[in-house]
């Protein structure tokens, strides 16, 4: 998944330290729990993509695969966290000169290097195995971040690449958000309507999903089309802006958060356990995704002040996975065909259960190693440049 701002940095004006107000940290500092939440979401997505629909003879193995199937919830959590961080960063920069230049430069140095390296690997693999048509017909779609458009999906499925690209749709959703969101947010900010903008977009996205369910739109529209998924990003953005409105609204959020979280868990559980067993798409897209967005916002809020969730997500292991989450998201599916070929070569006649365990063992070992190598030897170079751009912008403002 495209990484949100690495140093989970936000700011808030006028937060009281009185005992009656929620206790929040210095929100201009790095918040480790948000890194851990990103790592948790990344692990969940890896689990989901390596689940299997095969029924095993062992109940414990079936239970594991069912739990792995819930990992899809990591993507909405990613989206909400990205919306929270990016909207907060934008809001805090609007009063500064050349805010837009600095924002787009920093986003480019964080996202583009790994993404276009991935496209280079896809191109090299397609050329190496003789799939030149796939490279020629589809690479430009990925290069322009258009792979989530339903009108182009038939081309992507008609000319599949050697390496897996099915998960790259979420990167397109985030990049389109980063590209477009600053402008309407800035215009709304100037009129003191930024909070309302987030709420309106969230509701419009929800209604668009309802309309697509009613019209029986193709599955690709439900899961990857930006207008239907941007609500999750704006839910996080709403929280980021609400915390900047002062004590009264912050205190109200503290009071209603437990009820919102409880209602979201009940609604989500109902969709998972009691919705029709034949097709859960309609309730999951309409009710489930909305409930999950609200729950994600509550989780983010509780990570901002001391408590069990902050301690959980501040775990060193989860924070490390959060640090490498961008590469982990990209590589875990990109090389899935390679992992499968390794299993088929060395365990060709083994049982399906053994092959499956071998596959997830390989994927869960090599993918984090590849992501770590990518982060520490490649991405970190561009992250240093990004930080220099940030420091240069601050020094110019100070002068």
Can you describe what's shown?
Pfam families: Acyl_transf_3. With 399 residues, the chain is an all-alpha fold. The protein has one domain (32-398). Helix content is 74%, strand content 0%. Helix 1 packs across helix 15 (316-323), helix 4 (99-128) packs antiparallel against helix 5 (132-143) and helix 16 packs antiparallel against helix 18. It starts with 31 loop residues before the first helix and ends with a helix. The model is unreliable at 4-21 (pLDDT under 50).
Provide the fold topology.
Elements: H1 32-49, H2 59-69, H3 74-93, H4 99-128, H5 132-143, H6 150-158, H7 169-180, H8 182-190, H9 194-214, H10 219-224, H11 226-242, H12 247-274, H13 281-302, H14 308-313, H15 316-323, H16 325-334, H17 336-346, H18 352-398
Helix pairs in contact: 1-2, 1-3, 1-15, 1-16, 3-11, 3-13, 4-5, 4-16, 4-18, 5-6, 7-11, 8-9, 9-11, 9-13, 11-13, 12-13, 16-18, 17-18
Query: Number of helical segments?
Result: 18
Name the shape in a single word.
Answer: globular
Tell me the number of strands.
0
Strand content: under 5%
Helix fraction? over 70%
Please state the structural category: mainly alpha
What string gives the helices and strands in order? HHHHHHHHHHHHHHHHHH
Mean pLDDT: 88
Count of distinct structural domains: 1
N/C terminus separation: 37 Å
Low-confidence stretches: 4-21
Radius of gyration: 21 Å
Biggest sheet statistics = none
Pfam families: Acyl_transf_3
GO molecular function: acyltransferase activity, transferring groups other than amino-acyl groups
Protein name: Peptidoglycan/LPS O-acetylase OafA/YrhL
Keywords: Membrane, Transmembrane, Transmembrane helix
